[in-house]
Amino acid sequence: MLKVAIVGKPNVGKSTLFNRIIKVNKSIVDDKPGITRDRIYANAEWLTQHFKLIDTGGLMLDEFDFKKQIELQVNYAITEADVIVFLVSYKEGINNDDHYVAKILKKHKNKKILLAVNKSETRNKDSYDDHEYLRFGFQKPYFISANHGIGIGDLLDAIVDTKLKEIKEEDTFKFCIIGRPNVGKSSLVNCILNEDRMITSNIANTTRDAIDSNFKKDNLLYTIIDTAGIRRKGKIQENVDKYAYLRVEQSISRSNLIVIVLDGSEEFNEQDEVIAGLAHKANIPSIIVVNKWDIVKEKDEKTMNKFIKTIRIKFKFLSWTPIVFLSAIENKRINTLFNEIKSIRENLNLKFNSKILTDLVFKLQMLNSPPLFNRGRIKINHVTQVDGQIPTFVLFCNNPEYLHFSYARYLENEIRKSLGLNNVPITLYFKNKTDKIRGKKNDK
Hints:
Blueprint: E1 2-8, H1 14-22, E2 40-46, E3 49-55, H2 67-80, E4 83-89, H3 96-105, E5 112-118, H4 131-134, E6 142-143, H5 152-160, E7 172-178, H6 185-193, E8 211-217, E9 220-226, H7 239-253, E10 257-263, H8 270-282, E11 286-291, H9 303-314, E12 323-325, H10 334-348, H11 354-367, E13 372-373, E14 376-377, E15 380-386, E16 392-397, H12 405-418, E17 427-432
Parallel strand pairs: 1-3, 1-4, 4-5, 5-6, 7-9, 7-10, 10-11, 11-12, 16-17
Antiparallel strand pairs: 2-3, 8-9, 13-14, 15-16
């Protein structure tokens, strides 16, 4: 797939252009320079042509916090991109930072570089000011306004004009990594990808955007989504933190699996429980990762069991969730995490015959009869699986409105156990036997 990177100094509108092209507010946009620190990926389409778009942090000549890390991220993006959109601002004009970026880009002569002049909505179309931008040596400039959508079509025409061999996209399994700030989420991503994909430091919240990374392991495709650390709502004061909190919820909504990262070197707190609650609310599989296991003091053979017991008490609503102990910074026990991810992926794809399901539920009713109600006893006479993000089963019975939630929970736990679905949530729908099934059956 064609890869396109947007590069430029801070505050020229890179993230606004990124969002305009993908039609989603994926990058955090604010007037404050340096809001985008990592490189951010998204799929885009123009005139039926698909391409991968990359947003990057701003480059500056002067020294500033995270300069080396941001330059490393931008260089990664430039290296992997086929097309580079060099973005400058008509409103602010050209300065030394723009020439600094141009100097970096000129080292990549094998790349297609498109110069785009953003914030040009006030420019007179009849003006002859191209010469100022032609000095960069990147052919004619494209005058655009990312905010107003002006000139974007011409720029996209030039982007998709790049010829590449078509690569068929395969199914990918998406999982997001969530947790409070500084528990090691980005270190875990870097460990998995074997590169400094994220900017990491001891300063809380050095990752602000949700960032997608595609990779392959054991011939299976994955997309990993790293998110900003979630602070307590009372401490969310800056717009950036509010945006990041919403981005975490969006990341969860497009994931197949949630990895909840805890800091093993500190006591678990209320915010950890709030974050785990987001995973529970999403009703998709999750894994609890106890990170920084290398610096947990005075470990013995009982330490891990003590942690597990504490987690099961604090996060009792995630009783089925696997727990993994690892050290991202030392790259230890990472395979344990992937064994769980692979197992969950396989379980989500399992399909069960209706006869097997019906026989199972019949036996469960024999072992523990449904409670009585004023019209008699509820009887479940048929079960089928339908399509869903998690294993989803429809149980047909008489008077489902009288089924007590405790009996539904009994069936859910026993069905999960009997079918070997111990590490994923399942959904049960109780329908009147005269109701029609919505969704595709799995009766093979």
